[in-house]
Amino acid sequence: MKTIFCLTLALLCLLHPRAHATIDDALSFALEAAGPYVKEGFTVREDYWGGDLPVKQKKAIVHQLFKGNEYWFWMGTDLESARITVHIYDSEGNLAEAESWNNKPHMAAARIVPKATGSYYLIVEIQKSSQERTRWALAYGFR
Amino acid sequence: MNRFFLFALSCVLAVGNALPGIAQEEPPRRIDVSALPATVVDDVVVPVPTEVFGVLDKLGSPNWHDVLRKIENPKRGERAQVALLLGTVIAEGFIAVEAQEPEEVKKIGRHVLNLAGAIGVRKSVISRTSSIIEAADKKDWARIRVEFDGASEDVKQAMIELKDEQLAQLVSLGGWLRGTEALTQVVSKNYSKDGAELLHQPTLLDFFQRRLDGMNPRLKRHSLVKKVREQLPEIRPLIEKPNSLSEESVEKIHAITSGLVKAIAQDS
Questions:
Q1: Is the pLDDT of residue B235 over 70?
Q2: Predicted model pTM
Q3: How far apart are the first and last CA of chain A?
């Protein structure tokens, strides 16, 4: 009986999200995604965006970018099974990113070399998640 | 039972690791910005001056020594003035890094600590300022930039924890004003369309204006806050169109930001 209890508990721990997870955990994955790019000369900002979202609902972030820089935006979530995305659009609504990826657990990212200085839209989305709401954080770096 | 546990565990891990194999869905090529497919996050991350200064460096070789303003004893008045001043001093730190003046960087680091103390958040920047001083000795400019950015964030977070979010906004605003003053000084000296385009920052101006409009009546009555609130809208039409930022517009923006930064330093 004791073994069954331990087994159930172990499975629950594996399947259930961490009870004390916060935006900080989501941010730590975003910063982990940033790691390799820091070596390439990107400066990672200390400030970031974060929150929680239900599946298939998007959030838009309006952000100032400067022509002459290159930017990476790194998104993180504390939930391993979640699938998240970040995409970048210019002020006219055209997809403006040079590349993006979301094929690693906990992470997604998009890169842009802005063609003009001005406002851009960062669209974040939780595409798939086992939870009703999924925490996310978005950090960025430039060079 | 052990075998069952291992089997269950491997199933769980297999599900968890299946993600990398999934192909990425293509994002829409275009979205309608007048009816965004998403709710908009109200919070704006204000760029650090380095984001703009770095571009200026790529466009030419600005004389950052000319731009750097040596601060002796920052005049400390009410909390709103100190918050704005703290923002301008942190921005000065970024300029000192561009000018590669380690002694000035160290002095600015100490000013940041003192000003943070004047608004009750000294503790939050102690480790940042000692890192700034240490990195200045080593002329580790990249690290100093990170630490000034971190100092600014730590101060703002500490203020938010003290329920002083509006003062935290003033720190950002002060930094933006000094950064823009420096940018316009560099562009005025050697005008180029690309340099002037860096002033096209409608999102930031609208954000600051919204924040100033939403401040509590006591803060709104503060002479400096009032002055900034009155003069920011004068900048808005000048930066409206990215490709038509004339030399004259750049000079006008310089006059406005320069006047405001001076008023913040003199507490008047």
A1: yes
A2: 0.87
A3: 59
